[in-house]
Design a protein that fits this description.
The protein has 17 helices and 53 strands. The protein is α+β, with helices and mostly antiparallel strands and 950 residues long. Bound molecules: 1-deoxynojirimycin. The site of 1-deoxynojirimycin has 10 residues, from loops.
Length: 950
């Protein structure tokens, strides 16, 4: 009965968005009504109340310390003893301390083998889940730091272990035994202390009957063996309390970031006064609210703490339901966080380095960097729920051309299938998908189709998955049935290796569904939190069982990643042996640490309201600073109908999202960009054209991020670490390393716009890319500049010191731009110099990796010289791009008031005079430069002598 009621409500919520407003908070747990969070909050309060009298129950047994030398490294082992006064027996928690490449220190605490006999009868694995890192880390072989780079000491009194590490021993970690704390120092200054507040808690296994003997005075037994939340009452919590919790004090840090996904500010908020800690629990949150710490679709448990001279990353390696309290107010200098997870081993990594960019790099060494996406996927994506049939798709395709909108991909949402049976087509609406793909291909376009993890019961594919026992199971270890779009469904268990070949079979070239004979079809993996309409919190019951006997509780936040990784694997296999190997493109809604390796994400079901446009910027920024740069928000807003102005402003902002897609709910009115009419259509077109012009810069930013983890949508503070004000700016951003500083307009009716310039460098106005009579801004101190704006304005500046590359011709799609010539914009800085990088490959295949078919070009300029140096290229690729030219060079020089007499260009043995427009308003343009991008070159600028010099 209850199920029917809940299902009914959810269906109403999903299908009639106009009837309800805002998220149904009662569908989701809070810390108060989550047993494990409630208990740890209580525990922390008790400890705080006891103040300095509190004597921790945890201590390290000195005699347990063992230093193991293995794999050319050292690992420190030991045991934490948990002493419960009422029990004779102590509980043993073995730990491991190790140092990984990038000077990442990792600490892991487990629980000694539990009393298996007592819990053998049930179908679940009874030890703690310790495989989160297997999914999150890039390789299973851990990149340990070499033994010669660190030294371990145990102090004389045997009360602490000291580890010195790093190239010049700049790092030190001290692990104290009683109380148990871990302090990490950089250059002898403490940066972070784990368990400074004694909130460390590790709920050991105990039988329900004798639970009361195991409880200490600081504890409450709330929800230890039953779930009090109304929709989870069936969860019997078979393993009892298993939570883990720990606090971290960040010394001298007031600016904390990361731990997505939340629709909130970039700089994390203090949560001490609210009942809403940040929650990491992947859920399909319907009509999420802005300025909220509620859980959303994805989870990356990486927190960044930043101060001018040092940055710190805390990676909490756990995929279970997690709450994080942030305290920025109790101490003037420091901040602290309290992490509480429902179960699993306690496992974390501390990364310390000079800059946040270095943290991105070091974290990337462990979890991997973003894949270099195929170039088309950086173009504009046209999506809605749904393009109805083949004719609709082809009409839109044609209208895009008619209105001269470049775009690369059209998307098919769930209605293309036969009754939401994935891996089938609705044959009435899509009778000839092969032909459809060919027609799209003909205009250089691609198709993305959706495949979700819920599988309608009673059709060939779900039958096979059930037969091969590759489904997620219920708590009785039999196939779990729930409801999603198709009605009754089962869920593929992508933790189960059996699933991969079954999944692969649907992507093979000769498969009826996907054997589309074509390489212009790509994937969208949605609802993979997983979304279960009749499940607690719209997800799977926590006592469901996955492969290996793991409770869903232990792996919930990782499931989405396993699902999109399975798709990636299938796509890679599909392209093997095919000479046209295209890099896969997958969009996922749910994600975890490591998802950046194989997928892009978007911020889910936002609304067509100004506040959602506004919040999309900190959300995409946060995603970028936790190494998941390929991210964006639904342009136009998913639910509702945007005003023409809002839609236009959203396109103007969306062109800067690393992932740029317009999308709309099935009930939303059609809003392809020509529908709004003039002047809106032309303004949106100009925005999209700017995106396409900047693709060489964006692709280069992706290349850099794929090597270093540097954000593409980059917070201002990354380039202004000494400016405290920059730490809270989250309505503007730098576009990769290009020097483009952008602040989208996110206010209705705006006619005045302020942009914060975080330093005293010179900035050139790039609003609308027209580079009109150049406005140059050079402030004596960081501050706001003000501009009058109109609807067509896309406010942006170029920071002096940068050289950016563009392709300016209008083409229908990226594929048709390949041989187009480049334009360079050189923005000289206060010292009259500039630099930039350009990365080129075929934009499609893996040849850049397999046979080095790529070009990496470095440009440098002074007031009188410009040159290009080829850093990397091989002969084959040089040949391939030999006809591509640099056509136009725009030189911006804030200081120049001299006229240029002549410009000579030298490439190889040839030298020629360039045609140019003289220095007009600090701008010189070289036309028709005829320079090959594939070879080095030099330019000399000769100025007319000054009057004084005459
Ligand atoms: C939920 C997704 O967030 C949305 O983008 C999609 O259109 C619907 N599912 C239908 O597939």
């Amino acid at each position: 009965m209850k199920f029917i009621r809940q299902f009914h409500i959810i269906l109403i919520l999903i299908w009639a968005p106009t009837l309800v407003f805002g998220v149904k908070e009662s569908l989701f747990k809070t810390c108060e009504n989550s047993g494990f969070c409630h208990r740890n909050k209580y525990f922390a309060e008790s400890i705080k109340n006891e103040g300095s009298n509190y004597q921790s129950r945890y201590s390290i047994a000195p005699e347990s310390i063992l230093i193991e030398s293995k794999l050319n490294t050292k690992i420190i082992h030991g045991q934490i003893i948990k002493d419960i006064p009422t029990l004779a027996e102590d509980f043993i928690l073995p730990f491991e301390l190790s140092i990984l490449e990038g000077n990442n220190i990792r600490f892991t605490i487990n629980e000694e083998q539990r009393h298996i006999a007592d819990i053998k009868a049930i179908n679940i694995t009874n030890y703690r889940y310790n495989q989160t890192s297997d999914w999150a880390f890039v390789t299973s072989e851990l990149p340990y730091l070499a033994e010669n780079l660190f030294k371990v000491e145990i102090d004389q009194s045997k009360s602490e272990v000291i580890v010195h590490y790093g190239e010049s021993n700049e790092y030190k970690a001290i692990l104290t035994f009683n109380p148990v704390t871990l302090t990490v120092f950089y250059n002898d200054i403490p940066q972070v202390i784990a368990n400074h507040q004694n909130f460390f808690n590790f709920e050991h296994w105990r039988p329900k009957e004798s639970n009361y003997e195991h409880l200490t005075v600081e504890e409450t037994d709330y929800g230890m063996f039953e779930d009090h939340f109304v929709d989870s009452e069936n969860d019997k919590i078979p393993l009892g309390p298993e939570s883990i919790a720990l606090d971290f004090t960040f010394k001298g840090f007031k600016n904390l970031y990361g731990i997505p996904e939340h629709a909130d500010s970039l700089n994390l908020k203090d949560t001490t006064d609210s009942d809403q800690p940040y929650r990491l629990y992947n859920v399909d949150i319907f009509e999420y609210e802005t300025n909220s710490r509620m859980a959303m679709y994805g989870a990356i448990p990486l927190l960044l703490a930043v101060k001018p001279e040092i940055s710190l990353g805390l990676f909490w390696i756990n995929g279970a339901d997690t709450f994080i309290n942030v305290d920025k107010t109790s101490n003037e200098e420091d901040s602290s966080t309290h992490w509480i997870s429902e179960n699993g081993v306690l496992d974390f990594m501390i990364i310390i380095d000079k800059t946040p960019a270095n943290i991105n790099y070091n974290y990337g060494l462990i979890t991997g960097f973003t894949q270099l996406p195929p170039l088309f996927s950086l173009g504009y994506h046209q999506c809605r729920w749904n393009y109805n049939d083949e004719k609709d798709v082809l009409d839109v395709n044609q209208l895009m051309d008619k209105h001269q909108f470049p775009y690369d991909t059209i998307w098919l949402d769930i209605e293309y299938t036969d009754q939401k049976k994935y891996f089938t087509w609705d044959k009435h609406k899509f009778p000839s998908p092969k032909q459809l793909l060919k027609s799209l291909d003909h205009t250089g376009r691609n198709l993305v189709i959706i495949i979700d993890p819920h599988l309608k019961t009673n059709y060939f594919f779900s039958d096979e998955v059930i037969k091969k026992q590759a489904c997620i199971n219920d708590s009785k270890n039999t196939t779990f049935y729930g409801h999603c779009w198709p009605g009754e469904s089962v869920w593929i268990d992508t933790f189960n290796p059996t699933s991969q070949p079954i999944w692969d079979s649907q992507f093979e070239w000769n498969n009826e569904f996907f054997g589309l004979d074509s390489s212009n079809v790509f994937l969208w993996n949605d609802m993979n939190e997983p979304s279960v309409f009749n499940g607690p919190e719209t997800s799977a019951p926590k006592d469901n069982i996955h492969f290996g006997g793991w409770e869903h509780r232990s792996v919930h936040n990782i499931y989405g990643l396993t699902y999109h990784e399975a798709t990636y694997e299938s796509l890679i296999k599909r392209t093997k042996g095919n000479t046209n190997r295209t890099r896969p493109f997958i969009l996922t809604r749910s994600y975890f640490a490591g998802s950046q390796r194989t997928a892009a994400m978007w911020t889910g079901d936002n609304m067509s309201k100004w506040e959602y446009l506004k919040i999309s910027i900190p959300m995409v920024l946060t995603s970028n600073i936790v190494n998941m740069p390929f991210s964006g928000a639904d342009v136009g807003g998913f639910f509702g109908n945007p005003s023409k102005e809002l839609l236009t402003r959203w396109y103007q902002a969306g062109i800067w999202y690393p992932f740029f897609r317009a999308h709309a709910h099935i009930d939303a009115r059609r809003r392809e960009p020509w529908i709004a009419g003039e002047p809106y259509t032309s303004i949106m077109r100009d925005a999209v054209l700017l995106r396409y012009a900047l693709l060489p810069t964006l692709y280069t930013a992706f290349y850099e991020s794929s090597k270093t983890g540097i954000p593409i949508f980059k917070p201002i503070f990354y380039e202004a670490l000494t400016n405290p004000k920059s730490y809270s700016i989250d309505d503007e951003f730098f576009f990769g390393n290009s020097g483009l500083l952008v602040k989208p307009v996110t206010d209705e009716g705006a006619d005045r716009h302020e942009i914060y310039i975080p330093d005293t460098e010179v900035y050139y106005d790039y609003t609308n890319r027209s580079l009109p009579s150049i406005n140059v801004y050079k402030l004596d101190e960081p501050g706001y500049i003000k501009k009058d704006i109109s609807l067509q304005d896309i406010p942006a500046l170029i920071k002096g010191g940068h050289i950016i590359s563009l392709k300016e011709r209008y083409r229908r799609s990226t594929r048709l731009m390949v041989n187009d010539p480049y334009t360079l914009i050189i923005a000289l800085n206060n010292n009259g110099v500039a630099e930039g990088q350009l990365y080129i490959d075929d934009g499609e295949s893996f040849e850049f990796e397999n046979s080095g078919e790529l070009a990496l070009v470095k440009f440098s300029a002074t007031e009188s010289t410009i040159n290009s140096q080829i850093l990397e290229i091989n002969d084959t690729f040089k040949q391939k791009i030999s006809s591509i030219k640099i056509e136009k060079i725009i030189i911006l020089n804030s200081k120049s008031n001299k006229s240029i007499e002549s410009i000579s260009i030298k490439q190889g043995d040839e030298e020629w005079q360039a045609k140019f427009d003289g220095t007009v308003d600090k701008k010189t343009i070289i036309h028709n430069a005829k320079i090959k991008v594939s070879e080095s070159w030099d330019i000399q600028l000769i100025y007319e002598p000054d009057h004084d010099e005459l």
